[in-house]
């Protein structure tokens, strides 16, 4: 994927750690990360230094498609 994009990670029990954050940032096209789980402090530092926006503990229900949202 060569276009700027947002990574969505639906991991309930796994936090994004600094190793995974570095792997994500190494793609060079990621501009943001949204995860249903957590992000460790060191991983947040990696994202911040790479100017990658992040959101943790995003409700999984907000990611699911419903008929109501499709009609909006």
Q: How would the blueprint of this fold be written?
A:
Layout: E1 5-9, H1 18-25, E2 30-35, H2 41-49, E3 53-55, H3 67-71
Parallel strand pairs: 1-2, 2-3
Helix pairs in contact: 1-2
Please tell me what the overall shape is.
Answer: globular
Task: Classify the helix fraction into a percent range.
Answer: 25-40%
Structural class: alpha/beta
Physical arrangement of strands within the biggest beta sheet: 1-2-3
What is the overall pLDDT average? 89
Helices and strands, in order, run as EHEHEH
Question: How many domains make up the coordinates?
Answer: 1
Unreliable spans: none
Q: Report the C-alpha radius of gyration, rounded.
A: 13 Å
Major beta sheet summary: 3 strands, parallel
Based on the structure, what is the oligomeric state of the protein chains?
Answer: single chain
Give the strand content.
15-25%
Query: Please, how many helices?
Result: 3
Task: Please report the total strand number as a whole number.
Answer: 3
Distance between the termini: 29 Å
